[in-house]
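Researcher: Sequence recovery benchmark, item below. Answer with residues only.
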């Protein structure tokens, strides 16, 4: 009964705020040391690694590459420049009046930051057959 209880606990969904205990074998320690060469501490390195793998799983499941609950295998990959924000990007909503920035919208570039600071003026509509007025 005790072994079954421990096995079940290991597979239970993690609970935010708890401090899991993770045993480091030689390979796990070497892999974490590589990640920590970027300046991350142990916690940040583990969060980064788990976040990358979790996003890979979510993407594979979303596009039905493998069934949900099945670990996908990563094939070729491409390195890209790190975006200038932390976390998933959120884009402004756009309607016929132009972009609407909300508190949840994050800038995705320096251009977006400048645009967000400047109030946008609605475009001047030109009537047919008339030249725009120059001021």
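Model:
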């Amino acid at each position: 009964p005790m072994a079954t209880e421990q096995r079940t606990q290991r597979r239970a969904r993690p609970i935010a705020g708890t401090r899991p205990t993770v045993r480091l074998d030689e390979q796990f320690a070497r892999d974490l040391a590589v990640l920590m060469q970027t300046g991350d501490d142990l916690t940040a390195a583990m969060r980064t690694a788990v976040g990358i793998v979790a996003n890979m799983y979510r993407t594979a499941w979303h596009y039905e590459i493998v069934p949900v609950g099945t670990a996908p295998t990563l094939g070729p990959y491409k390195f890209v420049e790190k975006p200038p924000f932390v976390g998933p990007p959120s884009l402004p909503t756009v309607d016929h009046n132009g972009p609407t920035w909300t508190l949840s919208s994050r800038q995705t570039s320096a251009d977006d930051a400048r645009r967000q600071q400047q109030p946008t003026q609605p475009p001047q509509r030109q009537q047919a057959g008339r030249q725009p007025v120059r001021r």
